[in-house]
Amino acid sequence: MSGLRVEIDLDKIGDNARHLVGLAAARDISITAVTKAVLGNPDVARVLTDAGVVALADSRVENVERLRRAGVVDPIWLIRSPMPSQIDRIVAGGAVSVNSETAVLTALASAAHRSGRVHEVIVMVELGDLRDGVMPAMLSETVEHVLRLPGLGLQGIGTNLACRSGIAPSVANMGELSDLAEMVEAAFGIELPIVSGGNSANLEWMSQARDVGRINNLRLGEAILLGRDPLTRQPLAHAHTDAFELVAEVIESKRKPTKARGRHGQNAFGEVSATLDRGEIWQTIVAVGQQDVAPFGLRGSTDVTILSASSDHLVTETSHQMAPGDELRFVPDYSALLRAMTSPFVEQRTHAGGQVRPPGPPGVLAGVR
Ligand SMILES: *Cc1c(COP(=O)(O)O)cnc(C)c1O
Description:
Mean pLDDT: 94
Distance between the termini: 8 Å
Order of helices and strands: EHEHEHEHEHEHEHEHEHEEEEEEEEHEE
Shape: elongated
Helix content: 25-40%
Strand content: 25-35%
Bound molecules: pyridoxal-5'-phosphate
């Protein structure tokens, strides 16, 4: 038992997923739900598959294995290019992997061949954001490589934008992906089942595009889990933005000055901070820190202001004195959620229909609690 926990409202996540699956279906686009922010939490995964997503996706093979151990038989995509050291695990986990390196594809093919399986792949194309993906001019060559290798199946092509460089999905780059899909299909006389246009940042494009072309899939994480558009971080219409809450305990609350006293050097994180003198305030310390969250990604109630955070202390200003043991609730943004779900010090509690469920099978990093 720990006072420090993430509370996960499965009903709200289910609502968000059903809503987005419906919006996408109206444009003949299927949804793959991305579980990396919840480390492949099986309770969340079940709500997502019940909502009608065609596949789950995660960036870590450990999370794929966690889902398989929990009995998930739905398609799971590994949406980070495989680590060569994990090839056998990826094939054994029955994941569809995204790829951009021919050497990795060759290794996947031999591993699949050895174990008598067919490993399905999606070839990623770089369309401006400069993260992973083959350059468009190299797509044909890569596809040819996949088609030549026994042991591999080609599920389709995809791209990822708005991640490293914040490049927005547009009529132009989605048109380019669509054209590339048609070019590949014509050149090799095949049909690509999946043309995956991107992530949550594609929703605005999806709702506004006159024609979505050959794009028939999006991979959604943040939009489903946090109900926000990552391009603007604005709430999406008809979406819950508070499916996750971080709850943490007060460990000290005192009247203190706002201006620090003494000579200023660097703080614990190498920053030199000058404090403004605003007189005395109720300074309340909450037992959560950099190790557990991205502190400035937390949104508290209006009478709580986050002032600073060390590894283990979140220093806040509250409107009144609080007692040790009092709980404060915060809604995390994507970075704060990712880190909270990864911290072994943060308990995860899912609830649905007003009921709190006991913790599911432990994640890869569980054990410290
Ligand atoms: C993380 C990720 C996603 C999901 O992104 P969201 O912005 O959370 O929707 C989709 N595709 C890939 C390849 C990713 O790495």
